């Protein structure tokens, strides 16, 4: 587990330098209207959000997927990493619009940065935030075209990212649909997780890394999907747990966001399922109140602890991590042992302290 953490941290350090260099040269390489003031500000906000934190787990998955096949330098990985994280930036910008979230990664969300700059022009602020997210998505695809790899490989990598982007948008749609169900079952929650997060955050990096290294991805698709599904669910459980039980200073996001948004996340759904009729009424009365005060969030947090929701979520995270580890261990006949060990150790390394 410690080795997986160290390797992931090293990938993050190297990538952050490359990401900073990308944004430093982007204004010169992107054909934008020379008289525009709004366009440079848009690029500045995208740069700020992109470089402000983030675990870069997708980048680690990408590079370690290539290491499953070879330790030699692999052309195209740098561009694939930039593409993955630019698509993530797109998702964060649009997520924060949908959720009306003021904070992201310890700083203002792109949407709220624009709202502060245009306090008397709400439609302009909204429009600029939407367009900033759109620009990040297009840049994500554009950067792959710059990869110095054979055209066939470039096309295959673009196909992976385009599919991942489209599937993520459908996941956002289903995510909103989920909250119109009184109590979504586990299968529906897993489906939301798969489309909204897993396919672009875990499966796409695995596919891109293996593709760049020359592997036949289709021959391994089933095992990649099983691993990605388990890691994705575990990661979403962790995020939902932290939204209800986390420390704002540590996460960089306000706690209780799912309650205020009326989002029936894994944590909120578990709370509703465990509550009796009277307790459920208390929870339902708070759901969807954008001005829910901190003391009410604390009241619901204590109720969730009383009902064992925190313990259930931690148990579910542990179960997913153990299953993902076992899945990765089954890769040993197919790929390099050192890289397999990374994928086997990563799910347990990402458990919450004490989990």
From TrEMBL:
Family annotation (CDD domains): Trans_IPPS_HT
Enzyme superclass (EC): transferase
One GO MF term attached to the UniProt entry: transferase activity
Keyword DNA-binding: no
Highest taxon, organism lineage: Bacteria
Keywords noted in UniProt: Isoprene biosynthesis, Magnesium, Metal-binding, Transferase
Family statement drawn from the similarity comment of this UniProt entry: Belongs to the FPP/GGPP synthase family.
Protein name: Polyprenyl synthetase family protein
Organism for this UniProt entry: Kitasatospora misakiensis
Upper lineage: Bacteria, Bacillati, Actinomycetota, Actinomycetes, Kitasatosporales
């Amino acid at each position: 587990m410690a080795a997986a953490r160290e390797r992931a941290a090293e990938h993050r350090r190297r990538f952050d330098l490359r990401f900073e260099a990308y944004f430093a040269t982007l204004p010169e390489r992107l054909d934008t209207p020379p008289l525009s003031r709004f366009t440079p500000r848009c690029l500045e906000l995208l740069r700020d959000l992109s470089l402000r934190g983030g675990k870069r787990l997708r980048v680690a998955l990408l590079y370690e997927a290539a290491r499953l096949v070879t330790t030699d330098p692999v052309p195209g990985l740098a561009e694939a990493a930039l593409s993955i994280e630019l698509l993530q930036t797109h998702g964060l910008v649009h997520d924060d619009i949908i959720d009306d979230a003021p904070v992201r990664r310890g700083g203002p969300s792109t949407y709220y940065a624009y709202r502060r700059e245009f306090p008397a022009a709400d439609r302009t602020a909204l429009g600029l935030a939407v367009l900033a997210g759109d620009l990040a998505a297009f840049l994500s695809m554009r950067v792959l075209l710059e990869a110095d790899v054979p055209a066939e490989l470039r096309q295959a990598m673009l196909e992976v990212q385009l599919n991942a982007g489209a599937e993520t948008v459908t996941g956002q749609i289903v995510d909103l649909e989920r909250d119109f169900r009184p109590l979504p079952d586990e299968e529906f929650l897993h489906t939301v997780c798969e489309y909204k997060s897993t396919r672009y955050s875990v499966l796409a990096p695995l596919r891109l890394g293996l593709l760049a290294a020359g592997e036949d991805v289709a021959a391994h698709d089933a095992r990649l999907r099983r691993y990605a599904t388990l890691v994705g669910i575990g990661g979403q459980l962790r995020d939902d747990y932290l939204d209800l039980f986390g420390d704002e200073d540590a996460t960089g996001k306000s706690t209780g966001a799912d309650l205020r948004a009326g989002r029936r996340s894994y944590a909120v759904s578990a709370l509703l399922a465990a509550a009796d009729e009277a307790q459920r009424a208390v929870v339902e009365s708070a759901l969807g109140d954008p001005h829910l005060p901190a003391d009410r969030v604390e009241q619901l947090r204590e109720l969730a602890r009383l009902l064992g929701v925190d313990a259930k979520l931690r148990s579910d995270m542990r179960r997913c991590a153990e299953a993902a580890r076992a899945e990765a261990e089954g890769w040993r006949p197919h790929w390099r042992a050192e890289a397999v060990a990374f994928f086997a150790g990563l799910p347990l390394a990402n458990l919450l302290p004490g989990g």
